[in-house]
Task: structure prediction
Amino acid sequence: MRGYFYKAVNTMTVNANDQTLITAIRSGIERQRDWALYQFYGDESIKTYCQSYVINYGDNQEVFEDMFQEAIIIFDRNIRNFTFKENCSLKTYLISIFKWAYIGFKRKKTGKTEAFDTNMIQEWVDSPEAKMIGDERKDLINEGLNHIDARCKELLTYTKLGYENKELVGLMGFSSPEMAKKQAYRCRERLRDYFISRPDLMEMLNIKSS
Amino acid sequence: MNTQEKRFKEYYTGILSADDKAVFEKELASNSDIQKEYCAFILTYEAEERLIGQDLRSKIKKWQDQPPVFENEEKDARIIFLSKKSRFSIWQIAAAFIGILGVVGLMWNYMSDNTTQTNTVVVNDDIDSTQLIAQIDSSTKKSNENPNAQSPKSDDNVVFNPIPEPEILAYVDLATDIYNEPSHLYSSLKSDNNDNSQSEYSQSLQLFKSKEYKKALTKLGSPKKNEESNIAYLRGHIYFNLKDYNDAVICWKLISEDELLPLYNEARWHLLLAYTAQLPSSKAKWDSLVKTLQIDPDFDYRKELEALVNEVQAKND
Result:
């Protein structure tokens, strides 16, 4: 939890209800994950807060909706990937992500962020979320995704979400769990091989060989 | 995920311990192979996350239009503990039910075979020297499809086909007997996809499921270059059921040549069935594919393959 907003409240920890929601998001069961995420997406108190935040900075409902959607996606990702350290409530965490996403949007759009707290901006620049939201790698990633077919994409989505191989048999019609596992591996390898084959791979990521 | 990938992930997501992080960064700075592997890992990882993001975005769009209903989610998530005795009773009931279903299935199969036999009559045509079978296809009576669409020789529900040699018929029967409809695809009807080509795929699959093969084929449209493998796979099944084994071979062969495709194994098995239906003319291809499949440890239809080979050998003997 690196956000400025969290630093102010980092004495808090997640409550039992949050724990249930975290478990549901990490469960790898679609219905449970959807249910947990909807608890936040449908929460009027969070929405109202975020909406007024955007409007205060002179933006409209459309910007709020885009940013809120982006925030929910990052929120889901960080909980699944254990980036969320569970030292504040989930509501607080989502609002903080929303603010990060909004600063990112402002930086991209106007280059001006004077109105925001300096610490908060620095936190944003250093965060993985900033890399994810404003990243120039997007084109390269999209090119890679164009090299795999729709079924592979669906399969990779499910496996990344933690679906079990036996569930994939029913969901995607594989003949056995082993087959599902094998195919997921193959799809992933295809994607990875594409990236490996790119001569500009390291430049894209700003990694220099010694 | 192997150890290296696990370390990449922990480093990338910022959960690697400080000591491990220092060691990793040292390695990363000095080893160009690791640098390359790490770069590919990041992009693969981000690509997978992108897919999840896209999926979630489409869900949110649906939630905006219509809020979802989650009934008793927590209640549903509970685990039900059963005693050994209760579990045994459930197994007994399930076994009895499967047994009854099996008997009903066999009876149904037997009765439908008899119906087909009684509907087949031989017609002697003095004008045409070719002997013809006039087969009254009872399935087309039930179907709303127009049989004239693909069969120029058809007259109402009576379809005239030149009599194939008995040997060929036997192989076609064998292939169709062993063939199972791809029920494993039907579950994908539940998973929504907003992509137009995929919704056409779903509609076609639905038509295929209700045995409206010609309509299913029309819905898929003509084959495209670089067609999605699931569409080509379904197209193969449609052709197979329409007894167009040549085209079924074309569809399944494309998939069977790319082991990275998700339906690779399924396509190879069905390709073999299509070759079986074309025996004896396809013998060389059939033999070659059987040999390949027999030595492939990854092939999923080993038992079915063994049974098919035995049946074909029995017919040859």
Q: What stands out?
A: Residues 177-197 of chain A form the longest helix (21 residues). Chain A has two domains: 4-133, 138-204.
